[in-house]
């Protein structure tokens, strides 16, 4: 009996066969043609329509430098348009014990590149071995910006802050997927950043205490989540000092609402059961 070895034959066709099959389908002979939209310019139509199905990424992240170090605050909501996909996303990437990165934009893009920055043996680790000291915030942000610039135009969506402490003191940089890199004293990134900036700019002071700075970061995140539908979940606050970073707060924005807007009428209406009276 002869064995059937047809399954071992390659299933891929060469370019000429593929082209002939496509032409056969379009001409209405042989295989069924793939239905195409009735438009004059198919290429322009596809580029225009893809914007309607592309998921939008919203968030609120902020960071600022003051006399006591660097404060980094973020929310934890992930959304795709009107759909809330998660309320527990960790938007702070702990690059190393002295460096933090924030996520805004495509979550996968931010997570991959910032984790990659922390694991870069060729760059960060060799820098430490050659110089006998940790890589600076400036150097880490430059490495990330160079990587983003080399991938510019390839569909990455990322707006991140790199914050930390080095021999020069506290540092804060903004880096995006176009390779832009900006040093600053305070930044807010994401769809809720405009609301966060209003609180941050009004309450910021260089000589504020650590407790006031932590409270300012938390309050700015809360007010952004109250107005921006793509931000929400938990308001997490990190404090970076010469000894490294520590997470100092992580509270639900729902609970924070009653902290910043104490309304006795609302509380009494919740506490009293109308059916019991």
From TrEMBL:
Active site positions, chain numbering: 59
GO biological process: proteolysis involved in protein catabolic process
GO MF annotation: an example: threonine-type endopeptidase activity
Family recorded in the similarity comment: Belongs to the peptidase T1B family.
Subunit structure, as described in the record: Component of the proteasome complex.
PANTHER family: METALLOPROTEASE TLDD, PROTEASOME SUBUNIT BETA
Protein name: Proteasome subunit beta
Organism: Auxenochlorella protothecoides
